[in-house]
Backbone:
């Protein structure tokens, strides 16, 4: 429930000012809908929270929308999970000009003296729908994000905490589909739904064996949202939202995620009138420290139910050029030139664009004539993982050359993919190239033949030169033989060059392994720091024990270290570091790090690893 404090007496504002002193400043772009029709109306808000000074607000261009109204400036206060915050909003009422996936860029403003830009939004605009009779919202200053649920943290006489927790605290796993083909993405969203006051942390994360996992970086809607289930409204927090790309057929169970929760309740007393107070009265009593009752705290572990998905095999009849691409794609090929000199390189760029399992697509084979030499292709990609299936472009650069002059017909590159929408294979081919290879530019032309008078093979002048040469050569041989003492072998004969070179194994120090997390620590990004730290730890352990990628897991390493004499305290310290890295992945908004102290601790643990 969102409360507008304009109804409270003016002195209340000054009493509440201390609550804003440490509140975090944010600048967010929000929309009341993510999908609309061509004739629909969209409400977009640029909301600055807890900002003491806002200047130079600049709205984006809205190039794909008509602005029907705005900017509308509003401000107020809200109560979210018992915390009070101020907000100021600029609201625009828009209507799309066309269908498609339209992008609304963020606004910019000078907030507390710092130039800040809000996030961008993607709006899916479909075909036209009947226009609403009243396209303008009743209160454009309060979006769906600002609406808050009625928290259910009061224990009335006769109510038990267990009943409240069972109805008011849920962990769920939502899937956009439960049946898919190999290579077809499935969106899995782990959520915490709550009507209570609680602090939660992930205590066990699920393994997703059999899938390639990609986190959806830009989640739809920043922060918690309101979600209705079974007729009740909950505050919904996304724990993790990923795209799962199946790697093999079969039935798989997606394991639950477990959360440890501390839930707080206010148990009311039996005094007269205590149960008849309004929500606003209870709020004011709580703020003034005059709540009627006593607070109590309960700890409980809640897990999402496991869910099964069925992965279907791809149908038979795949073309010879099919190598696992699933989705919908187009290709385009571009050659740097169609004429080169022998020994020069030609660059050919193939672009694969569309939506599907782009990260798993390999470079298609280019069937070239035997006289053409090709090098390993270079691959880059641009991906948007915030939507499913992910969209983007993969650029593959082929480099070829030939030492044989001539004219060659290079065939086009064939690329095949499976389209789950039509349940069929599709094949595309680039145009062929007529390549001309000329003689090498570095070739020295031979001298033209001219008619000359033939001379005797050995003229007198040539005989004199040959004789002098033989005398000099003989003298050198005599000097060498005279200096060599007979019967005495050469001392310390120089070994062959191939025997003198000894390849030493490459040894990486602990400092070498910790270079990436030390660099990340300087970026003041805790999530990046923990990701690099986790990678460095596994690289050090894997290299030392010669572990394959599939063996680099706790279940393998912990018993191995214990068998090598590690104490329970050292094992617990290493496990704690791993848990902090995992926590940063599942709740990046809460990740924090004393990087210097953690690096010192990890350096000591990795030293023990290399001594094991």
Residues:
């Amino acid at each position: 429930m969102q409360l507008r404090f304009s109804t409270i007496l003016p002195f209340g504002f000054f009493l509440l000012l201390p609550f804003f002193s440490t509140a975090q400043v944010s600048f967010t772009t929000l929309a009341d809908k993510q999908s609309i029709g061509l004739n629909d109306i969209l409400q977009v808000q640029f909301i600055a929270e807890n900002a003491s000074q806002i200047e130079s607000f600049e709205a984006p261009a809205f190039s794909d929308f008509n602005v029907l109204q705005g900017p509308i400036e509003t401000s107020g206060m809200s109560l979210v999970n018992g915390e009070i915050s101020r907000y100021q909003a600029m609201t625009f009422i828009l209507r799309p000009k066309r269908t498609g996936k339209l992008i609304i860029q963020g606004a910019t403003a000078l907030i507390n003296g710092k130039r800040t830009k809000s996030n961008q939004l993607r709006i899916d605009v479909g075909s036209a729908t009947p226009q609403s009779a009243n396209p303008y919202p009743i209160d454009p200053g309060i979006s769906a994000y600002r609406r808050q649920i009625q928290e259910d943290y009061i224990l009335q006489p006769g109510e038990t905490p267990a009943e409240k927790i069972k109805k008011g605290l849920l962990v769920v796993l939502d899937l956009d589909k439960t049946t898919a083909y190999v290579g077809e993405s499935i969106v899995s969203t782990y959520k915490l739904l709550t009507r209570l006051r609680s602090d939660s942390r992930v205590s066990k994360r699920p393994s997703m064996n059999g899938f390639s996992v990609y986190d959806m970086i830009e989640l739809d809607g920043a922060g918690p949202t309101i979600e209705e289930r079974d007729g009740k409204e909950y505050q919904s927090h996304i724990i993790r939202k990923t795209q799962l790309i199946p790697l093999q057929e079969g039935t798989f169970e997606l394991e639950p995620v477990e959360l440890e929760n501390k839930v707080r309740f206010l148990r009311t007393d039996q005094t007269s009138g205590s149960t008849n107070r309004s929500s606003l009265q209870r709020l004011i009593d709580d703020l003034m420290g005059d709540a009627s009752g006593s607070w109590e705290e309960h700890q409980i572990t809640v897990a999402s139910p496991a869910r099964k998905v069925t992965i279907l095999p791809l149908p038979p009849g795949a073309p010879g050029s099919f190598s696992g691409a699933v989705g919908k794609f187009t290709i385009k090929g571009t050659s740097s030139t169609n004429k080169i000199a022998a020994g020069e390189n030609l660059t050919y760029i193939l672009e694969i664009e569309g939506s599907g399992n782009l990260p798993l697509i390999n470079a298609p084979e280019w069937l070239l004539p035997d006289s053409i030499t090709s090098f390993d292709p270079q691959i880059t990609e641009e991906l948007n993982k915030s939507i499913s299936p992910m969209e983007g472009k993969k650029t593959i650069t082929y480099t070829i050359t030939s030492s044989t002059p001539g004219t060659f017909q290079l065939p086009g590159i064939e690329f095949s993919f499976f389209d789950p929408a039509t349940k069929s294979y599709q094949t595309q081919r680039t145009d062929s190239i007529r390549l001309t290879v000329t003689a090498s530019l570095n070739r020295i032309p031979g001298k033209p033949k001219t008619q000359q008078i033939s001379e005797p093979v050995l003229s007198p002048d040539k005989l004199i030169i040959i004789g002098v040469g033989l005398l000099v050569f003989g003298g050198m041989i005599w000097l060498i033989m005279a200096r060599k003492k007979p019967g005495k072998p050469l001392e310390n004969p120089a070994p062959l060059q191939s025997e003198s070179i000894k390849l030493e194994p490459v040894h990486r120090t602990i400092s070498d392994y910790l270079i990436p997390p030390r660099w990340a620590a300087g970026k003041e990004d805790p999530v990046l720091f923990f990701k690099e730290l986790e990678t460095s730890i596994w690289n050090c352990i894997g290299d030392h024990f010669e572990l394959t990628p599939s063996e680099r897991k706790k279940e393998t390493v912990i018993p191995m270290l214990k068998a090598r004499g590690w104490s329970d305290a050292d094992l617990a310290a290493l496990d704690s570091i791993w848990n902090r890295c995992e926590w940063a992945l599942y709740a990046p908004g809460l990740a924090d790090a004393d990087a210097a102290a953690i690096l010192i601790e990890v350096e000591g643990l990795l030293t023990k690893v290399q001594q094991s």
User: Anything to note?
Assistant: The first strand starts at residue 26 and ends at 31. The chain has a mean pLDDT of 78.
